[in-house]
Design brief:
homotetramer; alpha+beta; Chorismate synthase, AroC fold; 5-stranded antiparallel sheet; 25% helix; 23% strand
């Protein structure tokens, strides 16, 4: 399924080396100012070739709006965003055409569909996430009208960890190429990624996302809990292996008396003293910061020979060619934000019918 | 949204202290033998009062099939399962009627809906999961026709951890009341839960789920990746704070060369030497074991006074009454299995149209 | 699919001779007063045995609310309505167990599902519509809060036609058993139905539905046009063969200059002079009366021998047993209204996100 | 909602005078040969300017496939089809920018969305149907693999009617510009349309569609009956006012004994002697011909002055400019076929999970 969302719905398309990728957004309310330069900024944060620690594929990732915007505003009809693939020159893919790269989707796509577009990974390429970022930018514009702010950053690379988000200045995330707001940790992370790259290997990491000013009441019982949908959205991003929100996996070690977030009255507003709940209780936002961690595995394409089989089952070896991301998390930051924005925009619209006005 | 699934769809209803809870299953293929005693067994695994380490609420959780089954088989029309609430006697709820229990859904439900059924938590009570288990039992029956086996167990309580699943005999899970297949760890877990219970507190834990014999090819790119939907399904269970599959959060520390699962040919079948992928590549099952961890926070209801506010914002205290689960994971085991079964049954049906026959 | 609607969603279940039928309503906004006697009134309008021109099956069609209502109001969680089947005594169904009744669903259900619940038609029985009427009653309660009024009536039986709705007093619909507000036409219709019944035959008819005070702006381009969804809803009712709105099939004979509805300003409100559009333009309500016709075929069960085959293809004959409706339209009136209410309630909620507030 | 279908899903976008229109098809099974010249043939049947009785807008309606097809076959991933608007030169739209054309969607779009893209009707223009035809062509290719044949034709223009489809040779539909397979009736229809055009007026008509060789068992009880979904699909086409299948509105006049379709055994195949059911019983295909009528109103744009109001409520007049279709039905034939194909393709895939294999 390449469609996502209930009321704010996106439908994405495109392969890594086809003519174009894109997205159709259905359900964006009319009257939203569509700031095109903001959309471009978001795409640029994700695009390849932005720094020495990312893949050097050449894509400007410029987009065109084909519909749904008139005189600078959304009209309520589908907004189609279109991004041409520039780097689609005929390459030599013979090494992967018949061979299954370890921990890629080559084998499973063949098994499911009978064959696959093997050029650059086809639909399973992370190139697909550019469409998510474009759509997420519009979701962010919608959310900004009610004050919601979404900030993701790199909180871990390999064993290197940044401090807890409450001890960071999130406005500094874009100050370095690894997108970690702690400058000294960032420096180490960059050094680690560079070292891994030189050893022709890859490394994993964690992106943390913080959402401020979420209106109280977003999220739907029982299956569409806010964190359940956030989890699905994050886990749908290539290379993601885990999701936790609030106290997450660490929370299991605590006692209820330590973990519970007591309520208090702050000048007429009901708030919690602590926030192990991660801003979500019973699947519904309570107005506190929403925060969660997204675990990314090391990129599967490495520049070393690995044992594998071809599609006829013959044993062989394969190695990456060209240049790939040695670590995916710096470029994953805007993708995580985009998916978070898509989830929140959808729940924001859905909440409009929670009760009789 | 109280509806879940695309082709194998469930619609659940019911509050903790209303007359009944239940589920309507739409899309179960015709001709499936509906083994009622199996459904009852599953419900009994989840029901309260089953051991000294669970809540003592009295519910037999017996069900009635209202439709969709004829002469012992599914007819292809909706299967409605109905469970009467026995323990719905009028209790004294005055302590929570106007007061927000910390880390419960009281405040958010009020904020979202304007008021709430406060009796026993209403719809936000984990009682709702009985309907999931009933539906999941039917999903399991469907999956058994193609050999899929789903086994969950308690792998962690507080700081106490069981070994990796590959070192356990999963047939021993039901041998003890905590549902950990390692007898000596189980004993310690039971002691810990009992100690926590006596201190009027609660503790969290982790449920691990292992799925064997999944057909290759289940899961849909790009948003409905198999692990993304499993993640959503698990995160929709009450008290869940995190989800990871395969190498999960630990995997981020590895290098690609360590993490990649090399393919080999095992007597004509393409397999992987390791399984950091957790049986899923590119969002699609590859035939290896699917395994994942689900983190449960400590139960929010504790038998101690906690500071909080009432719905008018006045500061007050609240304490649990009656007897509650000191740790949710033993009873969560069948719930995790049920949600996994619902996800797989749905993808199994969806995969029927992946390619021209 | 036994689920209907996008935001105001119903999930129905139940067979003609199973223990019960019912419906789960998901998405009803919180805070709606649930007037139970109104729901009962609607069910009573549909129930069998209400007059000499309907089937004499004995059903009180009393319902029970199992969830989603607290202190008389909807809570925002699923509302489950449950109706026990009283007349489920073991009858002799040997004449239809193996034999395909002409123009019934016996053959197609067998072909699709491999077997069927043959008792009284099973799921394909019009008994299923009681669940729609119950859910529709709640949709009507929601719509009443914004002033929408839905009135259906019998406008044709066989060749007997009532005048155009604008020449009728719709408050008189319930004054006679055929539910035609024109008393003299009603008398002839009743005589015709009775005559048909005595000749052991059946006859078709048309139900017309008029919706007043619809807010401007309901309906979604391009596939979910208001009249398209109304059409689907009506065509999903048993025995319906056609749907037309506004000028309908007659409108094809007109010229554009005759058919177009010119706008004028009525005291500040934009209105149309004529209403060939039937209150819907471009799939969106314009505030004028919505009106449409629904064609019902003659009931398939007749008390005469008809040629047919059994499930092994042997030629045989079959005849109806017991007493059945000689004409379905009098009892179809509340069903048509219910489906119209479900459609409008859904679009009413969906319209809340048409534009930035 | 600009998304249609459950498993074979389309998402369309584009305005009449924006840069492009298009469609994303999600859920097309892998391995289908995508015959591009067939898609172009279908688009050419719909395109403007094809004869003297259609609008003279200049559009070649050539399409480009952006994704989802590799080496001539569908890959199972989304197929995006893109059609540039050629005739988007800046015209003078001042006459409709502020003025509501009678029986158009101008007023309702403004009322719903707050403003509208007024150029050529924006999203409410029938130009949007080109995307449906492109998607429908792919649905037809899928259906052809199981033998389904879909043929629509013009059966009525104004008062001029063609004989019943069973008396026509449907292979002659494309032999004349009005697409009526009866040559002599076609001639009269063309003369009528031409006369209406010269009088600066428009006229309505009916398109009949016949579907042969539908597999038995397509259609889903109870809300997604095959004819209910066909009805919705047809009613979602611009200018459609009514839908009837099988005996339709005429059927209401018959007695059950006349209307019922008796079964017989034709060489081992169960068939019906008559086909008032229109190939669908209980919402499920029975293998006989499916046939239905779709009523189109006269085109709303006429070349005469009509009274209306502007958006501030001032009374004024408006008249059509340029050249428009004097009758929509000739060009509607491929649109009706396309929507029928989309419905059947979806049900064909859905039926794959009706029963245990």
């Amino acid at each position: 399924m390449n469609i996502y969302g209930t009321l704010f719905r996106i439908s994405t398309f495109g392969e890594s080396h086809g003519p174009a990728i894109g997205v159709v957004i259905d359900g964006c309310p009319a009257g939203l100012e569509i700031n095109e330069s903001f959309i471009q900024t978001e795409l640029t944060r994700r695009k390849p070739g932005q720094s020495k620690i990312t893949t050097q594929r050449k894509e400007s990732d410029t987009f065109k709006i084909l519909s749904g915007v008139f005189e600078g505003k959304s009209t309520g009809t589908p907004i189609a965003l279109f991004i041409e693939n520039e780097d689609q020159r005929s390459k030599d893919y013979s090494h992967i055409q018949h061979t299954y790269r370890p921990s890629h989707a080559d084998f499973t796509y063949d098994a499911k569909y009978g064959f696959r577009d093997y050029r650059g990974g086809g639909r399973s390429s992370a190139r697909e996430t550019a469409a998510r970022v474009a759509a997420g930018a519009i979701a962010k514009l919608l959310l900004k009208t009610v004050g919601v702010e979404i900030s993701a950053f790199v909180s871990q690379v390999g064993d290197l960890k940044a401090p807890h988000y409450t001890q960071l200045n999130l406005s500094k995330t874009e100050d370095n190429i690894v997108r970690c707001p702690d400058a000294s940790v960032a420096e180490k992370m960059i050094a680690l990624i560079d070292e891994v790259r030189l050893s022709r290997d890859t490394v994993g990491g964690i992106v943390t996302c913080v959402i401020k000013n979420t209106p109280v009441g977003l999220g739907e019982p029982v299956f569409d809990k806010l964190h359940a949908e956030l989890g699905k959205a994050m886990l749908s991003i290539n290379a993601v292996k885990g999701f936790e929100y609030g106290s997450g996996f660490e929370g299991v070690r605590l006692r209820g008396s330590q973990h519970n977030d007591e309520f208090y009255n702050e000048g007429g507003k009901i708030r919690t003293k602590t926030n192990h709940s991660g801003g979500i209780q019973g699947g519904i936002s309570n107005g506190e910061d929403i925060y969660f961690n997204v675990a990314f595995k090391p990129v599967a394409t490495i520049m070393k020979d690995q044992y594998t089989v071809d599609k006829d089952g013959n044993e062989t070896t394969v190695s990456g060619k060209g240049r790939h991301d040695p670590c995916v998390v710096p470029r994953a930051v805007p993708i995580v934000e985009a998916m978070a924005a898509l989830v929140l925009a959808d729940f924001y619209l859905r909440a409009k019918s929670s009760r009789l006005s």
